[in-house]
Amino acid sequence: KRKEDYKLRELRIFLRDICRKLASNRRFYKFTKPVDLEEVTDYLDIIKQPMDLETMMTKVDMHKYNCAKEFLDDIDLICANALEYNPDRTSSDKQIRHEACSLRDHAHALIEVEMDSDFEIECQDIAKRR
Ligand SMILES: CC(=O)c1nc(NC(=O)[C@H]2CNCCN2)sc1-c1cc(O)cc(O)c1
After folding, report:
1. If pLDDT is split at 50, 70 and 90, which confidence band does 95 have?
2. Chain centre to alpha carbon of residue 18
3. What DSSP designation does 33 have?
4. Ligand 1 pocket, residue 44 CB under 6 Å
5. Is the pLDDT confidence value at 1 over 80?
6. Partner of 107 at 20 to 30 A CA spacing, among 31, 69, 96, 126?
7. The model's pTM
């Protein structure tokens, strides 16, 4: 195994822990599973790239993330999808937009605090080469 494969394994262990923490926070339960397309029948007419925390955990296991930035891009996608699908001035839409912004800010803050910045720079260099 190459030296950088050990770095990517360390990244996967780190990202699984972040994903677990976010998915176990009850505030974010709406974002833990793919949107149920049986229930929300017009979802794919509006949202072209669905994303959720369970799918992200699977992507970690499938080596789809080569740096934390790529992981945060999917978190930002979960948030953007919720803002796009819930634009109304109703309290229910406002509440889900608030939860989506809270998920985004918690994810970025968790990674900022727990991740060594030099390690992320090394991972981003690996990501560029792949
Ligand atoms: C995640 C998401 O974006 C989402 N948005 C919804 N919006 C609405 O229902 C708004 C849309 N505007 C008109 C009034 N209804 S429900 C919903 C959702 C919640 C869950 O607990 C699980 C799930 O899979 C999806």
Report:
1. very high
2. 9
3. S
4. no
5. no
6. 126
7. 0.96
* 77 sits in which H/E element: helix 68-85
Q: What is the dihedral of CA 72, 6, 63, 116, to 10 degrees?
A: 0
CB 96 less than 6 A from any atom of ligand 1: yes
Q: Rounded mean pLDDT of the chain? A: 97
Pocket test for ligand 1, best of 27, 29, 38, 40 (most atoms within 8 A of CB): 40
- Measured CA to CA, the distance from residue 125 to residue 110 in angstroms comes to 22
* CA–CA separation, 58 and 118 (whole Å): 26
User: Quick one: what percent of the chain has pLDDT higher than 70?
Assistant: 100
Report d(CA 5, CA 12) in Å as an integer.
11
Q: Which ipTM score applies to this complex? A: 0.94
Please give the single-letter amino acid code of residue 15. Answer: L
pLDDT in tens, 38-94: 999 999 999 999 999 999 999 999 999 999 999 999 999 999 999 999 999 999 999
Query: Which of 35, 49, 55 to mutate to test ligand 1, by most ligand atoms within 8 A of the CB atom?
Result: 35
C-beta 37 within 6 A of ligand 1 = no
